[in-house]
């Protein structure tokens, strides 16, 4: 095991950033066992083993192209929608095989929602953006209440309550992303997957989303992809560090290098590659 250089700790990176929650004890909601993801014959990510724990925030970090989005999409069967994509190994959700033949991917995506990098509201009113997910899931009653609850849950209600009929596209980038979070939580998922949700936002809007994630973690389980290490250190309880490595034949594959409590990853990683990445030596 390597130790960090003495001048580098998480607290020098980010004072007070070590999450206070006891992290190892929470129940795993999802488990990945030897998960590899292929695009055609290309094995983009190989042999991933990790757990996603209930009501906690798990961050996937690593350099561009190491397979973070690929792994994230495999967690709610979004890769089903990518031609040629295939998942090998086992992913369980509450102990059940997510890829078993009798599992309905639409139901999976209702229980495990997704928020994307670029805010993608529909060209519809704020109200309709939130109501949409409810409608396609067959929910028709108490629509006004449900929309309000989702907007409150996404910390957006006070900013939009007097203009619910305005287009979602008229909102600022940060508000649009919170609208997308409202749309995701309206259907009451258990898990929310977020793929670099702040990378298109300014620091103030980013701070609001990070605060919101912290609040949401009381109700939902969150998995976030971020290439911003400070963000991973600020918001997450667990961190999975991926990298891309060449095999004997010179082909690059994403690999999970290390998975641990976030405080541990950023202060005392057990792998030299993790240390090099978090201290900025590559990536
Ligand atoms: N739809 C796709 N078809 C083929 N290859 C893909 C596709 N999506 C991603 N890849 C490849 O898989 C690898 C991992 O990509 P990705 O998961 O997007 O990485 P990251 O999110 O860490 O930047 C990369 O080599 C990328 O080019
Ligand atoms: Mg990505």
UniProtKB/TrEMBL annotation:
GO MF: ATP binding; ATP hydrolysis activity; phosphate transmembrane transporter activity
Alphabetical keyword list: ATP-binding, Nucleotide-binding, Translocase, Transport
A Pfam family reported for this protein in Swiss-Prot or TrEMBL: ABC_tran
Cellular component, GO, one term: membrane
Glycoprotein is among the record's keywords: no
UniProt-listed GO biological process terms: phosphate ion transmembrane transport
SMART domains in the record: AAA
Record has Metal-binding as a keyword: no
Superkingdom of this protein's organism: Bacteria
SUPFAM superfamilies on file: P-loop containing nucleoside triphosphate hydrolases
InterPro entries assigned: AAA+_ATPase (IPR003593), ABC_transporter-like_ATP-bd (IPR003439), ABC_transporter-like_CS (IPR017871), P-loop_NTPase (IPR027417), PstB-like (IPR005670)
Domain annotation ABC transporter: ranges: 30-269
Protein's UniProt name: Phosphate import ATP-binding protein PstB
Species: Catellatospora methionotrophica
